[in-house]
Amino acid sequence: MNNLLNTQLVVASVIIQEARVLVTQRAQGSHLAGKWEFPGGKVEQDEDPRDALQRELREELGIDINVGDVLEVVFHRYSSKNILLLFFFASIRPHSPPPQPLEVAAFAWRTEHELAEQDFPPADTAVLSRVRSLLRQATRED
Ligand code: DGT
């Protein structure tokens, strides 16, 4: 079905700690190289999307996460493919190793004001605005 629709299912995580969100920079040689994004990747054949997200964060950052509810769903057309992006709330498990840039160019914890639209793929516009308002709320609660 995925192939018939020419739509790739992609999962990404929104991890907020102390009024900052975890973002990663795409590696050189990948689609959208150099852009910042919410860590995640493609769901494999027959894989549960939440399992895919846990696998991707282990591969990219070496961290163990708990995956919560969906924050945003985005359908985006590229010239050669379509993607359906599921953004999940997630949290780093208490005994997880700290993040390391294993399969990403870099990672960073960004505040609301450090999230610049132009650093992210156009597919992220809607989720960025949701994340900014969550960070604003978290800052007020600090
Ligand atoms: P691989 O194994 O090299 O095919 O890579 P994966 O499985 O890590 O998947 P990836 O990251 O290449 O595919 C994700 C696609 O979704 C890619 O075309 C970029 C797009 N995308 C747009 N916004 C985001 C975002 O915020 N996070 C992630 N992870 N991908 C995003």
Can you walk me through this structure?
This protein has 142 residues and is α+β, with helices and mostly antiparallel strands. The protein has one domain (2-93, 101-141): Nucleoside Triphosphate Pyrophosphohydrolase, CATH 3.90.79. It contains three helices and seven strands; from the N terminus they run αββββαβββα. It has helices spanning 2-5, 49-61, 125-141, and strands at residues 7-17, 20-25, 36-37, 40-42, 65-77, 82-92, 106-110. Strands 1, 2, 3, 4, 5, 6 and 7 form a seven-stranded mixed β-sheet that branches. β5 (65-77) and β6 (82-92) form a beta hairpin. The relative contact order is 0.25. The mean pLDDT is 95. 2'-deoxyguanosine-5'-triphosphate (DGT) is lined by residues 10, 12, 30-32, 37-38, 40-42, 56, 83, 85, 121, 123-124.
Please name the defining characteristics of this protein:
single chain, about 140 residues, alpha+beta, Nucleoside Triphosphate Pyrophosphohydrolase, seven-stranded mixed sheet, 3 helices, binds 2'-deoxyguanosine-5'-triphosphate
* Domains (count): 1
Q: Give the overall shape.
A: globular
Radius of gyration: 15 Å
Strand content: 35-45%
Order of helices and strands: HEEEEHEEEH
Largest sheet composition: 7 strands, mixed
What's this, in brief?
The protein has helices spanning 2-5, 49-61, 125-141, and strands at residues 7-17, 20-25, 36-37, 40-42, 65-77, 82-92, 106-110. It has 142 residues and is of the alpha+beta class. The longest helix has 17 residues, at 125-141.
Secondary-structure map with pairings?
Blueprint: H1 2-5, E1 7-17, E2 20-25, E3 36-37, E4 40-42, H2 49-61, E5 65-77, E6 82-92, E7 106-110, H3 125-141
Parallel strand pairs: 1-6
Antiparallel strand pairs: 1-2, 1-4, 2-3, 2-7, 5-6
The structure holds 2'-deoxyguanosine-5'-triphosphate (DGT).
The site of 2'-deoxyguanosine-5'-triphosphate has 16 residues, from strand 1, strand 4 and strand 6.
